[in-house]
Amino acid sequence: MIVAEQKPLQEIKRLINEAENVLVVGCGTCVTVCFAGGAREAAIIASSLRMSTKLDGNGKNVSDVTVQRQCEWEYLDQIADQVAAADIVLSLGCGIGVQAIAEHFPATWVVPGLNTSFLGLPTEQGVWAERCAACGDCILGITGGICPIARCSKSLLNGPCGGSEAGHCEIDPDVDCAWQLIYNRLSSMGKLDVLLEIQPPKNWRTSRDGGPRKIVRQDLRLVAEED
Amino acid sequence: MTNNDPLQIVAYCCEHCAYSAADLAGGLRMQYPPDVKIVQLPCTGKMDVLLALQAFESGIDGALVAG
User: Fold this and answer.
1) Which residues of A touch B50 (CB under 8 A)?
2) Helical H runs in B5-60?
3) What is the signed CA dihedral for A47, A92, A7, A107, rounded to 10 degrees?
């Protein structure tokens, strides 16, 4: 999932300072399950903003609504009237949701209520950890299902480095050494020979180094949309 | 409200203990201030930040969670 966390209330208040009518838009997918921007969080932020701005002497009209996914036009169509009535939209979606609202409603000023953090999973209740860097050229098949791009601090392809200490990374004793994890897993599965193959430098053009990415599936496109 | 107005308190009470105690107090004709508004919860585990925010937004002075 996309993992995010809320911006401090003071920062959000600065972002909406100029507006009178504020619409807080939650998202019902990734940021709901990481407790950052779902319906409950949208209601809490809206209530907090109403009270806080009232105490500041410039009370704002703050309402909230949550869509299933902010990153699809069809769901955004459902809130078109509410967006049109607002001076500003405070999106509690990830960065994709914020941009989707800006793109779908060109006349609307939209600001983010969250900091989008990473692609990851909850390792235990209340703890989320990064697992994928979306590099566009997955190598999990040769690393035992543990990603050194996302989980090794240096994104090494042939690790570990000299900073691996007793299974932990030199940047922080609380961070596991990804290559130690890879070694342990391959060892337990009797596949250590996989590590004998030296990996060449990675082609980063499929990652951000190649610029903004796009996927076109001709088999899924509608005829009318084809160029 | 003025400074002389009584404080408005919302008491969120677990139905298995605190609410039952308030119910028993009523049955015994014991008095408690009318400014305390009791909200029955199935469990105080149901208590939520949003409940408290909504109560404060509507003008209460304090919230009591009893369970």
Assistant:
1) 40, 43-44, 47
2) 18-27, 49-57
3) -100
Cis peptide before A160 (omega within 30 of 0): yes
Spans of all domains in chain B: 9-66
Q: Provide the phi-psi class of A211: left if phi over 0, else alpha when psi is between -120 and 50, else beta.
A: left
Three-state SS for A184?
helix
CATH code assigned to A2-118 = 3.40.50.2300
pTM: 0.90
Residues A133, A67 contacting (CB under 8 angstroms): no
At CB < 8 Å, which residues of chain B contact A?
48-50, 53-54, 56-57
B53 neighbourhood in chain A, CB within 8 Å: 44, 47-48, 51
**Residues of B with CB below 8 A from A48's CB?**
53
Q: Name the residue facing A40 among B50, B56, B57 (closest C-beta).
A: B50
Residues of chain A within CATH 3.40.50.2300 domain(s) are: 2-118
Per-residue pLDDT 10s for chain A (227 aa) are 999 999 999 999 999 999 999 999 999 999 999 999 999 999 999 999 999 999 999 999 999 999 999 999 999 999 999 999 999 999 999 999 999 999 999 999 999 999 999 999 999 999 999 999 999 999 999 999 999 999 999 999 999 999 999 999 999 999 999 999 999 999 999 999 999 999 999 999 999 888 999 999 999 998 776 55
Beta carbons of B53 and A44 less than 8 Å apart? yes
Query: Chain A residues with CB inside 8 Å of B49's CB?
Result: 44
Which of B49, B50, B57 lies nearest to residue A50, judging by beta carbons? B57
